[in-house]
TrEMBL record:
UniProt-listed Pfam families: Aldedh
Enzyme class per UniProt: oxidoreductase
Originating organism: Staphylotrichum tortipilum
Domain Aldehyde dehydrogenase: 6-364
The protein, known as: aldehyde dehydrogenase (NAD(+))
Catalytic residue positions: 142
Family, similarity comment: Belongs to the aldehyde dehydrogenase family.
Record's keyword terms, sorted: Oxidoreductase
EC number: 1.2.1.3
Amino acid sequence: MGGPTYAEAGYNVQGRSSLNTPGFLNVTLRQPFGVVAAIIPWNVPLVAFAGKVAPSLAAGNAVVLKSSEKAPLTSIKVAEYIIEAGFPPGVVNILSGHGHISGATLASHMDVRALSFTGSTRTGRAIQKASAESNLKNLIFELGGKSPAIVFEDADLDRAVPETAHSIQWNSGQVCMANSRVYVQRSIAPRFIEAFKERFGDVVLGDPTDPQTTHGPLADTVQADLVGGYVARGKESGKLALGGEFEPATLTIRPTVFTDTEEDAKILREEVFGPVVNINIFDTEEEALEKANATEYGLYAAVYTQDVSRALRFAVGLESGMVGVNCTSPQTAFDMPFGGYKTSGVGREGLQDSLDNFLEKKSVLFRL
């Protein structure tokens, strides 16, 4: 059974009223910006299209969407369906092309009043600068991640192992919230690592259109070279426990595991965006929390434990926009805020939050 849609959620948009000013009845109005923009990534183009265009329209705006130059066809096809559905011309508009041309135009355009972007932190900074130098757009960013998963000795490993492996293997690791860092308590580390390697490495590489394939290629040669570079550097700062092999002809990198990686290593601090995970060991809660928070990213974090008090302490202490307790990404909730701390983003998306992003607030004062 499907959940609520943005169209249905639009009826929940509310203002407020106040009688706190003597002699006045004051109310707020929620009004559309007019023209808004969306810039979406290549890794989940259909999901990103829907998550930005639908709330923009439900809030009453016209939207200009720029697709990734690596995945332009999905947006064009959906736009054809939108025309067939009877939307008036000019309500939904699609741009293709490279970010430094098409994206930069939207970021600096004076008629665009709000802009929602999903992509890299580097590009987010460029959009922020362009907006500041134009009309100070309302900006919503969902940027990079370096998500940690913390596995305590009382965790249910039958759940923790397959879920943490799936998180980094899903979409060949090309997901911003993938748990690319796993911290395991020392007493269970050998058992967890062996089980993780067995689960993570059990894949069938090949053509993603083949139903038998369980682990597809990276997006293109640029992405493959980037991930390959991190793997090469990872061998210098940690122990290669699984994988590392690259097939240039098919752009596939086998699921790769590093252990005992130096905490200040680039591969443990920067987003790799591939099927590469670092598993390190901790002894105490304090150590686990410190290591988990020791990056500039904060999109998703997970903790596996049967101790409810500990789970609550970590839910509060983790510097992350989303925390999974005995679950990890890609587990989310469409009606809850989605977004990150620190350089993982600005603002939140989600059923109600996305509608709020595309609505202005206006105060109206009625003298009685």
